[in-house]
Every structure is written in C-alpha cells, then in structure tokens.
Amino acid sequence: MATLLCVSEVIAAYGHITALKNISLTVNAGEIVALIGANGAGKTTTLKVISGIVSGQSGTIQFDGANIGSWAPDRRVALGIAHVPEGRHIFPRLSVLENLQMGGYTRTHALRSALEETWALFPVLAERRAQMGGTLSGGEQQMLAIGRALMSRPKLLLLDEPSLGLSPLMSERIFEMIRTINRMGKTILMVEQNARAALALAQRGYVMQTGQMVLTGTTRDLIENPEVQSAYLGTEG
Hints:
Strand content: 25-35%
CATH topology: Rossmann fold
Largest sheet: 6 strands, mixed
Number of helices: 10
CATH class: Alpha Beta
C-alpha cells in the first residue's frame, strides 16, 4: 500500500510552549487512521501542522511525493489536503450552497460535478441549499463542514472531532458517512475523542500524550492493549 502522508520528527510550538515533540506518523492511501489521546495531547495541532495552519519548527512533511512543510495552506489544499476543523467553522451567514462553493475554490472547473456528488452524499444539504448555515442543526452543520471540504476533491481528509457536541444517534450517522467517504476512495486521518468509535472505523491508530506519539499499531492491537483500554476505552484489560 502506497504511503500518501509521511510526517517525520516534527516539532511545533505556540510561543514558548512546545506542542509537538518530534512526532512521526504515516497514512497510506485508502486508509482511515485514528489519532486518539487526552485533551491537550497535541492531536489538533498535528492536523493543523499537516494542513499548514500551524508552522512546524523542524522535521518534514511529505504528501503525495512532495515535501510540503514550507507550503502555504491554500497550496496544500490544491495538492489534495482538506481539513475539517474542530467546531466545524462553517460560514453562518452564507447559505448552504455558498458554503459549499467556498470549499470548491480550488476546483472551479469541476464545481458542478462536485456539488452533485455532495448533494448525493448529503441529501439533507440539497434540501436546505438556500438556508443559512448558522440555522442548521449541529449534525447538519457537521455534514456541511465535511461537504465543504470534499468540494476541493481531496486525496486526504483531515477530520478533527467530527462527533463533537452531537447526540449519539447523530454521531453514528456521521461515522457511517465517514465510512462511506472512505469507501469512495478518500484517505482519512481522524482525531476523535470517542476513542472506541474511532478505532472501530479505522484500520490503524496512534496514541498521543503531551505532544508525543506513545503508541501505534493496528486498531485491533490498540483495542486489546490494556493501557489503551484503561485510559481511553473505559475498560480494564
């Protein structure tokens, strides 16, 4: 399986606070990879470094054969990385359609076909295409945030806490949609506080603590690991 993303020994800081300490990870084409850990472990910062929102101080980031560590975020989007941030961050005063059009700014030549694919994946968004984004329910806003990211036709989708603030039923719907998106050929790196759900979706996973990768393996290995069971799955091995 070809490696799509390779992060190697990346250090990142906010002022004098080091958030990432020589982290390394890989994501292979076609995979769902889960990144789990406690609040403040550095998971969100990891995604921001990959998408270019936060600059790494050292280390390398290779994506689809290119060394992108110094690239601006928009150039990374054009290459095929789309980031769905924690909290969704849709444009509340723009319509559903306008939000999606904003997501497709790097693929204007294929905007219509991308919209049709998004409507097919999220029929409720098609029904509400003229509705302001800020008036949607939390689950619908999450669908809109994911749909907006998909409008750029990414090779890699970065998902940060896709179930945050959602009911269990809506969370399950979002997880099923993520599974469908993966089956459509999208590679996914996902941060998710619901570790059990994340590991159920993914093929491999990483565990972060205080800015470092402390465990990695197949999801089966992680689910069966007593430390992971105790800290993140609410069970004892």
